[in-house]
Amino acid sequence: MLTKNVFATRGGVIGVGAVIGVLAALLQYWGNPGNMGVCVACFERDIAGAVGLHQAAVVQYMRPEIIGFVLGALIAAMAFGEFRPRGGSAPLARFFLGAFAMIGALVFLGCPWRALLRLAGGDGNALLGLAGLIVGIGLGTIFLRRGYNLGRAQKSPAAVGLLLPILMAGFLVLMFIYPQVAEQDKSGVLFYSLKGPGAMHAPLLVSLVVGLAVGFLAQRSRFCTMGAFRDLILFRQPHLFWGVLALLVFAFGSNLALGQFKAGFEGQPVAHTMGLWNFLGMLLAGLAFVLAGGCPGRQLFLAGEGDGDAAVFVLGMIVGAAFAHNFGLASSPAGIGPHGMAAVAVGLAVCLYLGFAMRGAKAA
Questions:
Q1: Is the residue at 94 inside a domain?
Q2: How far is 292 from 143, CA to CA, in rounded Å?
Q3: How far is CA 70 from CA 66, 227, 255, in A?
Q4: Domain for residue 272, yes or no?
Q5: What is the pTM of this model?
Q6: Which domain holds residue 32?
Q7: Percent of the chain scoring above 90 in pLDDT
Q8: pLDDT in the model for residue 285
Q9: SS3 60
């Protein structure tokens, strides 16, 4: 019993956060983009590009870390009897929440994990992003206090719970069948970036092993950045927050040791200095995460456990990434996209609508 629960203790979650922080810094050192050793939103965007859902040539790569997160969580869930296929809790609402969470994250240029890693790498722009994330989570907790509820999930057949892990395994097979060919932007059915963030990546097997390890550990510890701030605000419970703090501290220390720390606002990798939109993009993302019940990483780990509703959120994020790049919603180092401001406004309106409309919804 001790072995089964050790990662869920305070020391366990701190240890998991520390491991993620160190591995994220190492992934950057081994080839991932600057301050982007791990970014669930960015990596799912790259996957959307790899399968041709968008044509932004600089962000197309089948990221093995995401595949590893899901499969590592599946292995942990199977090993400890926690694979529980379920679904049916307002899936369409979760799809839209995933899409708008991605749009908000791409306006900021990062998920909550990357916001922490950007700060650990010295990017001062991350401060406004984290402030927006916390405000968005705080707003979401108001809806939770007032009875917001997407309804209870129902038990599903095991085959349904395995669908997203099978999809991720299929993506991995495609990477081996169609590896990148030098100086070619397409190999078989997969697209590959020749320049930009999508062309920067650690070796495939290294990324996959790190993803599997993080997925396993995070599933055991219930690691969740959104949950950390939500629990702190709603219940004054700092348990998960210690893990998030450990991630920040150990990533910072690792960046110093590896010579990857560069303090400032200007010239930071894959970042822009439009402070208001860094704040509002993450405010939208944080609100969507609360309404959906987990940050992007946690949704991947839940999907590995057989949670079909989390899988729908993940697919919503991937489709949202395609919309963001096909319709000029995503930011770049030059600043927010031409239609990003309108997209944030629409996303906030949709999230607020769901927040008010789903108060007191009956759990089946």
A1: yes
A2: 12
A3: 7, 19, 26
A4: yes
A5: 0.96
A6: 2-357
A7: 96
A8: 98
A9: coil
